[in-house]
Specification:
CATH superfamily of the largest domain: tm_1862 like domain
Oligomer: single chain
Number of strands: 21
Strand content: 15-25%
Largest sheet: 6 strands, parallel
Bound molecules: S-adenosyl-L-homocysteine, iron/sulfur cluster, FE3-S4 cluster
Radius of gyration: 23 Å
Length: about 475
C-alpha cells in the first residue's frame, strides 16, 4: 500500500532536525556533510532533498568527502557496473574513517533495497554505520539524531510499496534548472529491470503539490522545469487525471520557461499526449522515447508491451505533428536469447528512425528479475562486438544530423559558459541541442534568440540576433 506521509510525521522529523542543529551549534566549528549521488535524475532529485535536510540540521555541504562529518552515498542499482563503482568508492572510505573515526558514513538509495547488498555492507564494510532505503529518506533527521546520540550501526530499510513525503526541505543543484518529481516507483516490470523492485509501486503526487512547486521554482528564477518519473506518461492515473492535464496546467503558468520531462514509456505515449505537447509551447521539442530493441520478439520477452510497428507508428505521428522534434532513445544490446537477427532488427529500426542520439547499454543481469532466469547463450565478447557495431551505425547517422539546423534561429536558454573558448556561452535549443555563442555572462539564465551558423558533431555554433 502507498502511504502519504502525514503532516505530524513531517513535523516530527523537523523536530529531530532542530535537535541535531542544537547539538551541532555546540561544536567549535560548523560540521560538514558530503553527498555523492550515483544514477539517474530521480536520485539527483533525492540528493537535493538529502542536502536540504542536512543543511537544515546545520551541516555545511561540501564537494569532497575528505574531513566531512557526514558522508552519504546515494546509490544506483540499474546495472552491475553502477554497483561496482559504489563498492569501489565505499572501500576507499575506509581510510577516511580511520583518519576521522567520528565520521558518519551512510549508504542509501536503490542498491540498499536489495537484501544481498545490505548483507554485504553489514559484513564487509564495517565503517558504514547507517543504511537507509528509498522509503526512509524523509526520516534522515531522526536517523542522524540516532547516530549522534546512540553511536550504533543502524539499518533502516522499511518494507513498503512506497511512500510520498511532501514538504522536505530542498537544496537545488542549479538555479536555472529545477527537477520536480511528479511520481515515484514503477509498475512495468520490464523483465531486465531492477527499478520496480527497489523503487516500489507507481504513485503520483497530487497535481496541486506539483503545480505549486513549479510556481515557486519559477518565482525563484528557474527557467527549465524537469518533471521526473520512471514513466511520466502514466502520471495521475490513480487521481483520475493525466500527464497531458499536468502539462497543460504547468504550461499555463506565467513567465518564460521550458518544461522537460523524463522518462516516457512508448506504451503510454498516446496521440492525445503528443497533441498536447504540440499545443503547449513551453514543452520541450525533444522526445526521449526508450525503445530498448527493434525486434518485436525481444520486446515481448522484455515485457515492454508494444511492438516494433507500434513504436514506429508513434515516431511517425510525432514527426507529422511536430516536424522539428528531436528524438532520442535507450537501447539494450545482448538481452538474454537475443539473436543476430533480432539485433539486426534493432539496427534497421535505428536506420529507419534516425535518432538524434542514443543511450546504449549492454544487458546487465539483475538478481531477482525475470530475465536473470532466462538462457543467455551469447558470449560477452560477441555482445561487445554488436555493441560497437551499434555505435558505428549511430555515429554515421549522427554525423551530419545537425547540419539541418544551420541558418535557423532558435529561442535558446543560456545555461552557462561555453566549451568553445573564452567569451562564449552555452545554451539549449527547444530540441535540447547544445549551442555555443558569444555573449556576456550576464545572459546566463535567460532566453536569447540565436541564429545557427555552424554544426559540429556534438553541438551547434551560433550568433545572438537580438
Ligand atoms: N524508466 C525508464 C528507464 C530507467 S533505467 C524508462 O523505462 O525509460 C534507464 C535505462 O537503463 C533503460 O531505459 C534501459 O535501457 C537501461 N537498463 C535498465 N536495466 C538494464 C539492465 N539490466 N541492463 C542494461 N541496461 C538496462
Ligand atoms: Fe525499468 Fe521498465 Fe520501469 Fe523503466 S519502465 S523503470 S525500464 S521497469
Ligand atoms: Fe538507478 Fe535507482 Fe535511478 S536504480 S537509474 S538510481 S531509480
Amino acid at each position: 500500500m502507498t502511504i502519504k506521509i502525514s503532516d505530524e510525521e513531517t513535523a516530527k522529523q523537523r523536530g529531530f532536525a532542530e535537535k541535531v542543529r542544537e547539538i551541532n551549534q555546540k561544536l567549535e566549528a560548523p560540521p560538514t556533510a558530503h553527498v555523492h549521488t550515483f544514477g539517474c535524475q530521480q536520485n539527483v532529485s533525492d540528493g537535493e532533498k538529502i542536502k536540504g535536510m542536512l543543511a537544515e540540521m546545520g551541516y555545511g555541504i561540501v564537494g569532497e568527502p575528505d574531513g566531512a562529518d557526514v558522508i552519504i552515498f546515494n546509490t544506483c542499482a540499474v546495472r552491475e557496473n553502477a554497483e561496482d563503482r559504489v563498492f569501489g568508492n565505499l572501500g576507499a572510505l575506509k581510510h577516511e574513517k580511520r583518519r576521522n573515526p567520528n565520521a558518519i558514513i551512510a549508504v542509501c538509495g536503490c542498491m540498499v533495497e536489495q537484501e544481498h547488498i545490505t548483507e554485504r555492507i553489514k559484513k564487509s564494510f564495517p565503517h558504514v554505520s547507517l543504511v537507509f532505503g528509498t522509503n526512509a529518506l524523509y526520516t534522515l533527521p531522526e536517523l542522524i539524531y540516532g547516530q549522534l546520540t546512540e553511536h550504533a550501526r543502524m539499518f533502516s530499510v522499511p518494507k513498503s510499496d512506497g511512500v510520498i513525503a511532501e514538504g522536505i526541505p530542498l537544496r537545488r543543484e542549479s538555479k536555472i534548472l529545477a527537477s520536480i518529481p511528479i511520481m515515484y516507483g514503477c509498475n512495468n516490470f520490464c523483465s531486465y529491470c531492477i527499478v520496480p523492485y527497489v523503487r516500489g509501486r507507481e504513485r503520483s503526487r497530487e497535481m496541486n503539490d506539483i503545480v505549486n512547486e513549479a510556481k515557486t521554482a519559477i518565482e525563484n528564477g528557474a527557467k527549465e522545469l524537469l518533471l521526473l518519473g520512471q514513466n511520466v506518461n502514466s502520471y495521475g492515473k490513480e487521481h483520475g487525471t493525466s500527464f497531458s492535464e499536468l502539462l497543460r496546467q504547468i504550461n499555463a503558468l506565467d513567465g518564460e520557461f521550458r518544461i522537460c520531462y523524463m522518462s516516457s514509456h512508448p506504451k503510454d505515449a498516446t496521440r492525445e499526449l503528443i497533441d498536447t505537447i504540440a499545443e503547449c509551447e513551453k514543452v520541450t521539442r525533444h522526445f526521449h522515447l526508450p525503445v530498448q530493441s527493434g525486434s518485436t520478439r525481444v520486446l515481448r520477452e522484455m515485457n515492454r508491451k508494444y511492438t516494433r510497428e507500434d513504436y514506429l507508428e508513434i515516431v511517425d505521428y510525432i514527426r507529422e505533428k511536430i516536424p522539428d522534434a528531436a528524438l532520442t532513445s535507450d537501447i539494450i544490446v545482448g538481452f538474454p536469447g537475443e539473436t543476430r537477427e533480432d539485433f539486426e532488427q534493432t539496427l534497421s529500426l535505428i536506420e529507419r528512425v534516425r535518432f538524434d542520439s542514443l543511450y546504449t547499454f549492454i544487458y546487465s543481469r539483475r538478481k531477482g528479475t525475470k530475465a536473470a532466469e532466462m538462457d543467455d547463450p551469447i558470449s560477452e565478447e560477441e555482445k561487445g562486438k554488436w555493441f560497437r557495431e551499434l555505435l558505428d551505425v549511430q555515429g554515421e547517422i549522427g554525423m551530419n544530423l545537425y547540419e539541418k539546423y544551420v541558418g535557423q534561429t532558435f529561442r535558446v536558454l543560456c545555461t552557462g559558459t561555453g566549451r568553445t573558448g573564452s567569451g562564449t556561452l552555452t545554451g539549449k535549443t527547444p530540441q535540447d541541442v547544445i549551442v555555443d555563442f558569444d555573449g556576456d555572462e550576464a545572459l546566463i539564465g535567460s532566453f536569447v534568440d540565436v541564429k545557427i551558423e555552424k554544426a559540429l558533431n556534438w553541438a551547434l555554433l551560433g550568433k545572438i540576433t537580438d
